[in-house]
Amino acid sequence: VGAFAAVESLSATSAExxxxxxxAVLILLCAFACLGSKLFDRYVxxxxxxSIVLSFAAAVVALHEHEPGLWVLAALTFIIKGVGIPYGTRxxxxxxxxxxxxxxxxxxxxxxxxxxxxxxxxxxxTISSAVPSGLVAEAVVPISTAVILLGGLCMVVRRHTIAQxxxxxxxxxxxxxxxxxxVATFPFIVxxxxxxxxxxxxxxxxxxxxxxxxxxxxxxxxxxxxxxx
Amino acid sequence: xxxxxxxxxVLPLAPALAAAxxxxxxxxxxxxxxxxIATLGVAIAVALDVSGGRRIHALSGFIYLDPLxxxxxxxxxxxxxxxxxGSGAYLRSEEERRELSPLQVRLxxxxxxxxxxxxxxxxxxxxxxxxxxxxxASTLASCVLVGLxxxxxxxxxxxxxxIISSFGVTMALVGTLFLYYAAGNLPGSPTQHLTWDYLxxxxxxxxxxxxxxxxxxxxxxxxxxxxxxxxxxWLPDAHSEAPSPASAMLSAALLNTGMYAIIRFQALTGPALxxxxxxxxxxxxxxxxxLVGTLFIVLRGNxxxxxxxxxxxxxxxxxxxxxxxxxxxxxxxxxxxxxxAIGKAVLFLTSGDIVLRYRTRLVDEVRGVLSVTPLTGAVxxxxxxxxxxxxxxxxxxxxxxxxRAGLERSSVVLVALLLVMLAIxxxxxxxxxxxxxxxxxxxxxxxxxxxxxxxxxWLAATPLVAGLCALGLLGVWIPGRLDTLxxxxxxxxx
Lengths: 229, 494
Fold this sequence. Notes:
The complex is a heterodimer.
Chain A: H1 5-8, H2 15-35, H3 40-65, H4 68-95, H5 109-127, H6 137-157, H7 161-182, H8 188-215
Chain B: H1 2-10, H2 14-21, H3 25-50, E1 56-58, E2 63-65, H4 67-96, H5 102-122, H6 128-146, H7 152-182, H8 196-201, H9 208-226, H10 234-241, H11 244-273, H12 275-297, H13 303-324, H14 326-358, H15 369-372, H16 374-387, H17 394-409, H18 412-437, H19 454-476, H20 480-492
Antiparallel strand pairs in B: 1-2
């Protein structure tokens, strides 16, 4: 019995398949919304919505697989990524340092959106042939790859530390989406450990950003040039 | 042995508990030194136990030890011991100068302890997912150490470090997922599909396409931690801004942890893909790293950065050795991992003494270390010679082995290229350090002795002398048990 026997039975036309596909598309849209926004508030809101949709996707897979571990992960995703991290970022960073507009873009919004569209097309062209057709994974795996690439793009074109933080979190959401779609049976203890690391990383990053914001007027990476060589 | 293996992970946490009780660097340094020596003893016992080729498998592979794990546990425990002694002295000096607040001293010892414990734990698991979790946890703990001084520059270095390595490590997670996907057709439970020894026994059945992509992503991901070019950009900043004992841990322990993960994944690719694929990937990244390291060592600005670029170059040499493969290649790689770890730990600890004494990190502002502090100066000079690969030190022997492996299994052109770059590094590194150590008397008055108390001086001097003696010894004589351990490590992965 292969590891994906259960996932392979999840065809794109089943009720769960349709729900999962819809969730994946919404997650992709949230990544684009983040890429197309300039306001710090919005980044956080879009990331929160994306995480909540992701927690529903995890719940759908949990329902299908009867995996108690996935239910726990879905709940954790909702509470921590959907509510906790957006609230924490807003409360400790954006409101405390009165951050409004992210002006430190290295490319214009429209060009970064167009580039994002290219990356999405690239993900579909390269990945979809590797995934067996007719299954829900056929759409979800390329989408999760696209979300990983879009998160990376956010980190590259935005220079503000908060934008880089959100970009990394979007990447992480893409990885999680791919993980639940193709390898739903990933051992729970490992997934839980990954989650714990993520939370620790976010806490440390928030501490660094607020430390930087206190010392440098705008904590953007163009000002972080002292170490350039 | 499982009990001993658990002690190796728990014991380094003692300073973290002590830090909850007191913020003073003096008792904390003593606890750190004592616990690290005890850890080293237990780690060596573990390594000796598995040196004969014994494998220990428990908790469905979440605990797994083989000779390769034993080798790395002993190596990293040695680095932790050297750096713990250095930490006690360095932190007390910083505390006296009011450079660090009591909170920062506490944080240092807490995260130093977590850093050490997570790294040692990562060698003792056979579950590749848990390996990822532990390596990421050790990275996060080390980020706090890099940003500890909370100046704009050190926060900048810490930010760069955490963002680049999180990005990289996410790639390693995707690579691990691909490996898991590649194991989909194998019989066995999902947990077994992530367990190294199960996968190694069934490596022939892994599906080649996912495995190929997975290995590449893992090399990019963990390679970011190892400092392989072009993913190395965080490394010089983090190494130069961290407190020096923490730099020693980064360079001598953390980089090797990433290399350990790459070795494990390389072993899995052989049966399904043939050894050439992984070898080519590693040779490309290895030569890129040696080239980048060589070019930047020549610049000679900040000496901690220079040592950091030397680490990039050394990691490149190790990747090249793994790429050459064969018993000689692996033997050279493992010996190089051990000798570089000792040499670089000693070098970064001496750089800490120099920073405390001269209050600068620029090569050109440091002169006459040998006359100002004879011991530090002598160790600096000898350790630089050792790291640059001069006989009679251990790195000469390991680099010689790697060159022989290259001649035997690869082309003469590659070996010649490697030798040219090694020669350039030798001239640049030894030249710069000789100018610092000899070079007449300092242009401006130094900041006074690095350590005021006698006990601090002992704490600072012990790891320097001990490390240098070990390096000298390994250059002329490899103990029989170490040789058996390395040979059985190679057998465990081939």
